[in-house]
Automatic annotation (TrEMBL):
Residues 3-135 form the Nudix hydrolase domain. Gene3D superfamilies: Nucleoside Triphosphate Pyrophosphohydrolase. Pfam families: NUDIX. GO terms for molecular function: hydrolase activity. This is NUDIX domain-containing protein. Keywords: Hydrolase. The keyword Ligase does not apply.
Length: 154
């Protein structure tokens, strides 16, 4: 089993009327809308990867401001039989500059959407947006086993 890191970003900005909008991309391979996401390169810091992927996929410059969620994605199996499992790191990023435009061929229509204008999205993408915009003080962690306070032995 191989492991790697995956960064997902929720990029938000304020409209002139004070409402929030988020950056989404339409994937070229599936035609589905998604948060910006990508693989963390060897030796690359996760926040740098979030910023790089947003620039590569949407031609938008962002600053990763907060790691909002950490979880393990379900295992997957490649066509050659290799198995992999990724750690999903979700960052809230602030828009700095740039108008969305496809840049790397992985997507066709990067665009800003108001929260009441979102296109159909998988529930996991909606959940990422919700967690990122909740502005909770701590990073969210998923747990499948007992937490520290539930453990009786070291």
């Amino acid at each position: 089993m191989h492991g790697n890191g995956r960064g997902s970003t929720v990029v938000d900005r304020r409209r002139d009327d004070g409402t929030t909008e988020v950056l989404l991309i339409r994937r070229a391979d599936t035609g589905r809308w998604s948060n910006v996401a990508g693989i963390i390169e060897p030796g690359e810091e996760p926040a740098d990867a979030a910023e790089r992927e947003t620039l590569e996929e949407a031609r938008v410059v962002v600053v990763a401001e907060k790691l909002v969620w950490v979880r393990v994605l379900p295992p997957m199996q490649w066509a050659n039989g290799d198995q992999a499992q990724s750690l999903d790191l979700v960052f809230r990023c602030r828009h700095v500059s740039g108008d969305p435009a496809p840049l790397d061929g992985e997507n066709t229509d990067p665009a800003w959407f108001g929260l009441d204008e979102l296109p159909p999205l998988p529930s996991r993408h909606l959940e990422r947006i919700e967690v990122a915009l909740a502005d909770e003080p701590a990073t969210r962690f998923e747990r499948n086993g007992p937490t520290g306070s539930d453990r009786t032995e070291p």
